[in-house]
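Budget justification aside, the reviewers requested a transparent look at the raw inputs and outputs of the sequence design task funded under Objective 1. We therefore reproduce one unedited record. The lines immediately below are the structure tokens for a 121-residue chain.
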């Protein structure tokens, strides 16, 4: 889990991959309640979609396609923040610090993607 903070990754494809991977490791630590299972599925989807759509943007066929993929990636990062906050605030987590680090990383990714969008205009 410490891969994100211990050595900041500047390759955004790799950084988004590490984020999705770390989310999956975090979700495995949750108690198996109905809410955690459902919220976990949601955050697993959104966290993986951040990187998948960023990769798609890098292979875009047009500027319009690039912008759309970056927007989707940013939306998924924002959604990841939502689900991670929900999980963190509805559980009595022993590893709440990990949840907060993931929320921070999703927020940073959203800001980076917003910056890319601004520069693409």
């Amino acid at each position: 889990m410490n891969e994100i903070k211990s050595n900041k990754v500047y390759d955004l494809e790799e950084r988004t991959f590490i984020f999705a991977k770390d989310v999956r490791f975090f979700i495995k630590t949750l108690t198996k309640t109905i809410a955690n299972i459902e919220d976990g599925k949601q955050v697993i989807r959104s966290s993986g979609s951040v990187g998948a759509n960023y990769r798609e943007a890098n292979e875009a066929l047009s500027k319009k396609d690039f912008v759309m993929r970056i927007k989707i990636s940013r939306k998924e990062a924002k959604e990841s923040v939502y689900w991670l906050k929900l999980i963190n605030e509805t559980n009595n987590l022993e590893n709440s610090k990990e949840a907060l680090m993931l929320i921070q990383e999703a927020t940073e990714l959203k800001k980076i993607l917003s910056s890319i969008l601004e520069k693409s205009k």
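The CA atoms of residues 37 and 109 lie 25 Å apart. The two ends are 35 Å apart (CA to CA). Computational costs for records of this kind are itemized in the attached budget.
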